[in-house]
Design brief:
Layout (H helix, E strand, L loop, with lengths): L1 H19 L4 H24 L2 H32 L3 H5 L2 H8 L2 H5 L20 H4 L3 H16 L1 H26 L8 H12 L12 H29 L37
Length: 275
């Protein structure tokens, strides 16, 4: 009995190493095959949406779609059985994406139009950062995430300030231009202020009076300065972050990545890594 349990645990560890990690040849080969399958399945859906291709190869596309769906379903269940906390994986970002990658095809049995939602599979290509062993970029992505989290209060204050300004400018433009020039309400004037301040400039509404044009010019110039503020805030935070050399090692307990090269235990949950 104990031998069977050990064999089962060993098999789970081997599956986990192949599916979740890209440091081994088997893991890298699995992930490359997975990426090729993901891209191929998305191309099939895109091609199927083209009418003349659908008429000629509709049955082939339908068969290919089910082939990829069954393949990804098997992979999804292998991921579940290879981790020690299946629910944690299922509720993680990639766990949800993996589930959404297969659900539309099954739902399409009842609602045929939903099958085109499987283009969400393209999000799974994010795994390419692990597949190509670009651990450096994983570290940079982690540093960027930490910088954005650290600067969230400053960015919140900035966004509140911008929203206050567009309300003020929108209200002023409503008073200056009025309904006769297209500014029929304060909300619509605020919409114009947002479009102008972000330098998008749809042109569906524009001021006609000299006063309105002067205010619009001021808002445009202000917009150029405002756009640079969030970038500066995040950049300032990034200067305090230092990325370390990390691996694609995934914790079997919490599935966290970004561990140091010489790590033996997970730095998030303290579980022992598969090394």
């Amino acid at each position: 009995m104990e031998k069977e349990i050990k064999r089962s645990e060993l098999l789970k560890n081997q599956i986990h190493e192949i599916i979740f990690e890209a440091d081994t040849k088997a893991g890298k080969a699995f992930d490359i095959i997975l990426i090729v399958s993901i891209i191929s399945s998305v191309l099939v859906v895109m091609a199927d949406s083209i009418s003349f291709l659908n008429k000629s190869f509709g049955d082939l596309f339908y068969a290919a779609e089910w082939f990829f769906t069954i393949l990804f379903t098997a992979e999804y269940f292998l991921r579940i059985i290879s981790v020690k906390k299946p629910l944690k994986y299922c509720s993680s970002f990639f766990g949800i994406i993996d589930l959404l990658a297969v659900l539309p095809t099954y739902i399409s049995v009842l609602f045929p139009a939903s099958r085109y939602l499987i283009v969400i599979r393209i999000l799974r290509v994010l795994r390419i950062f692990r597949i190509l062993k670009l651990a450096y970029y994983l570290g940079e992505a982690k540093a960027l995430k930490e910088a954005m989290v650290s600067s969230r209060r400053k960015i919140t204050v900035f966004l509140v300030t911008v929203m206050t300004l567009v309300v003020i400018f929108g209200s002023l433009m409503y008073l200056i231009e009025g309904p006769e020039n297209g500014f029929t309400s304060i909300p619509k004037s605020i919409y114009w202020a947002i479009v102008t301040m972000t330098t998008v400039g749809y042109g569906d509404i524009s001021p006609n009076t000299p006063q309105g044009q002067a205010l619009a010019s001021f808002i445009m110039i202000l917009g150029y300065g405002i756009i640079a503020v969030p970038t500066g805030i995040v950049t300032a935070e990034l200067t305090w972050k230092k990325s370390r050399e990390i691996t694609t090692q995934a914790c079997p307990e919490c599935m966290s990545e970004g561990h140091d090269k010489d790590a033996i235990y997970c730095k998030y949950c303290s579980a022992k890594l598969n090394i």
